[in-house]
Automatic annotation (TrEMBL):
Pfam families per record: FAD_binding_3
Lineage: Bacteria, Bacillati, Actinomycetota, Actinomycetes, Micromonosporales
Organism the protein comes from: Actinoplanes octamycinicus
Name of the featured protein: 2-polyprenyl-6-methoxyphenol hydroxylase-like FAD-dependent oxidoreductase
GO molecular function: FAD binding
Positions of the FAD-binding domain: 3-156, 266-331
Transmembrane segments: none
Superkingdom of origin: Bacteria
Amino acid sequence: MRNVLISGASVAGPALAWFLRRDGVRVTLVERAPDLRDSGYAVDFRGAALDVLADIGILDEVRAHETGMRGVTMLAPDGSITGELPASAFGGDLEVPKRALTRILHQAVDAEFLFDDTITALEQHDDRVTVAFERAPARDFDLVVGADGVHSAVRRLAFPAIDPIEHLGMSGAGFTTGNLFGLDRRGLLQPDAGRAVFAFSAGDPDRMTVSLSFGTATPELDRAGRAAQEAAVRAAFAGHPWPEVPRLLDAMAAAPDFYFASTCQVRLDSWSTGRVVLLGDAGYCAAPTSGMGTSQALIGASTLARCLAEADGDHTAAFERYEKELRPYVTDNQQLGRQAVAAFGGDAADSPESA
């Protein structure tokens, strides 16, 4: 194994690239975005994910960007205070802005990056994979890794007959706006009958991140235009009793970084086929409600790289070992994601059989 292509330059892809480069592998990363992504909200790390950051040599630098969240105030539907949650309930062992993590990982990786491009075709051979790109000329690689998220282009090409996305009965929008509530490294959570408003400010005292979630699956809107997505959010929050909600809906309309998604998981019987393997959300998204997405991406990258290094060129054995080691961890995380949606009031079951 001398030449590997990774699709996706968010977290899982660059982390894997660092480990492969350490082992002497030539790596190319292709990313649909025109440049390094400077968006995203706070991400957190739990347990062994901190060890992966330490292995890469960036733990101290990542810690320097810790949000320092102090806690979350619970509100009743009318806005009155009902309780308090510790910062650890949302932030894990360490929480940083997503843009900081992305930049740090990118700077740590010595690899070729192809921005503003994507994979359009995969042709597998016994000894290589021929890859066609939207912009770059076609090239051969020893292995191809799909680390390109829930709606993975690599997965769609490598597993064309399978739709592994399972929607869990919950949707939501996210955006940033001015710090309307004067929050200082704190959050507000206002749940109301299958709806929830979560707002917090961390890192930038002038900005506030807002999440508006509701207990309805809307997979048809994931690829729709912003107007239809905003309309769905407004319909879900119509008549909300908290007087601040109309102001937040107005802020949503003006936000340049509006994001919408239905909460889902990716569930596959196998994470590889031939010389193509999936990593992170592309292969086994546990849903944002699990709180484990970033940790799972880092641990998956470390595990896959180690299995490849120990397999002495036998990618089939490496992929089998990677999946055998990681699947129990993924199964537990997906169960957490489903349980959180069920507690919120979505449709996800919480039985072991459904995880």
